[in-house]
Amino acid sequence: MLSALAGLLEDILYLSGGTPELLRNIDIRPELQTLADATNFAWMENAVRGFDQVKSGMRRNLLRSLSLDAFADQLSLPRR
Questions:
Q1: Cβ atoms within 10 Å of 16's Cβ, excluding its own
Q2: Per residue in 15-47, pLDDT tens?
Q3: How far apart are CA 4 and CA 25, in angstroms?
Q4: Is 28 among the domain residues?
Q5: 16 lies in some domain
Q6: Which of 4, 10, 33, 38 is the most exposed place for a label (fewest CB within 10 A)?
Q7: Is the pTM higher than 0.70?
Q8: CB neighbours of 70 closer than 8 A, spacing ≥ 6?
Q9: Residue 73 — φ and ψ, nearest 5°?
Q10: CA–CA distance from 6 to each of 10, 24, 44, 79, 80 (Å)?
C-alpha cells in the first residue's frame, strides 16, 4: 500500500515539474493533474516528509492506524 502511495506522490511531482512522460499511472492522469494543479512545492515536501515518517514507523512497528490517520490529516490540500 505504501509503495502505491509513493508512486502517486511521484507522479504528482512529475506533473508539477512538467515531465508527464515519466508518469507510471497514465490511466488516472486527469485525476493526478487535478491534484498536481491544486498543490505547491511546500505541500509536496510536507507529503514526502510525512510519508517517510509513516514508513519509518511501520518498520519500528508503531501503531499503524494512528500513524496513517495522522499522515492523512496532514495531507489536506493547500487553499488557493
A1: 19
A2: 999 999 999 999 999 999 999 999 998 989 988
A3: 10
A4: yes
A5: yes
A6: 4
A7: yes
A8: 50
A9: -65, -40
A10: 6, 11, 12, 23, 25
What is the DSSP secondary structure assignment for residue 77, as one 8-state letter?
P
How many domains does the chain fold into?
1
Q: Is 80 domain-assigned?
A: no
SS3 19: coil
Name, in order, each residue with C-beta under 8 angstroms of 40's C-beta and a sequence gap of 6 or more: 78
Please state, in angstroms and rounded to a whole number, the distance separating the CA atoms of residues 45 and 12: 12
How far is 38 from 68, CA to CA, in rounded Å? 22
List the domain range (segments joined by +) for residue 48.
2-74
Q: pLDDT band at residue 61, thresholds of 50, 70 and 90?
A: low
Q: Fill in the amino acid letter for 33.
A: Q
Q: Position 31: which residue type?
A: E
